[in-house]
Amino acid sequence: MPISVTPVSEVIGARISGVDLRNLDDTTMQQIHAAWVENFVIVIPGQTLSGAEQIAFTEWFGPRQQVRTIKLKRDEGTRDFMYVANKTVDGMEGVLPDGEMQFHTDQCYYENPARATILLAIEVPPEGGNTKFANAYAAYESLPAATKDRLRGLRALHVYDYQANATVKTNESAPDAPRWIHPVVIRHPETGREVLYVNRLMTDHIVGMGRGESDELLEELYEALENPDLCYEHVWTPGDLVMWDNLCTLHARTWFDPAEARVLRRTSVAGQPPDAAFAAAA
């Protein structure tokens, strides 16, 4: 039976119903993949997956990305998933526990950012802790022609300091914080469309440009990316599985009461270096 795909907004995201992710076949997964590529964010409610089952779903889209965070201590080995949580779950300490989180793209501070990210809601607060998603295709397309011309060939440094700037950029980053340079505009590997690839939380500056000029240009790009008309805000319900295309979307988190439990299990699909896999806009 075909799955049911219903848009959740006019610009980004769709809800998929009639699916049990514990029992999938090739035809159903092809339909889910097509819905994901077309809508960039998919919401699949009513799922009760174990960690192993969530990993199995993740691997339909490509090799899983093992957890990359300093919260994972050296003596703990590798992990295939982590909890975005403000409590310890199954002996695992949660990461990114509290508060608002600025718009960002997962792992853009590595050579090979995650291709996709998947979150399964286990516990959610009664209010807040929502996730906003932004359409980076539409943000690029909304820019004036002169700005697009200015971006051609530009590259930006992305830095993420888990200790000082985990959710909101406020301080200078530590010298050993992970960092990488990527094009400001990338070409999506499946659609071939141009994508604006900077974000407020993790982009430090545009390479080869003075700090003042860089900050001014980046602020223009952030305003385009964070335009509410190009965003969808997801209000979580336990059992929601949300998967997003990490190359053409940004996401952010709204504030929530830290006294209320918020637990989501995260898995990721491994990606390729944008420098090697995608050409900057020419």
Structure notes:
- β1 (4-7) and β2 form a beta hairpin.
- The N and C termini lie far apart (43 Å).
- It is globular and about 50 Å long.
- The longest helix has 15 residues, at 211-225.
- It is α+β, with helices and mostly antiparallel strands and 282 residues long.
- It has helices at residues 26-39, 51-58, 136-142, 145-151, 211-225, 274-277; strands at residues 4-7, 14-17, 41-44, 82-85, 101-104, 116-123, 131-135, 155-159, 179-183, 185-187, 194-196, 203-206, 231-234, 241-245, 249-253, 263-269.
- Strands 1-2-3-14-6-16-4 form a seven-stranded mixed β-sheet, with helices on one face. A four-stranded antiparallel β-sheet has the order 5-15-7-13.
- Helices cover 20% and strands 26% of the residues.
- The protein has a single domain, classed as Clavaminate synthase-like (Double-stranded beta-helix), CATH 3.60.130.
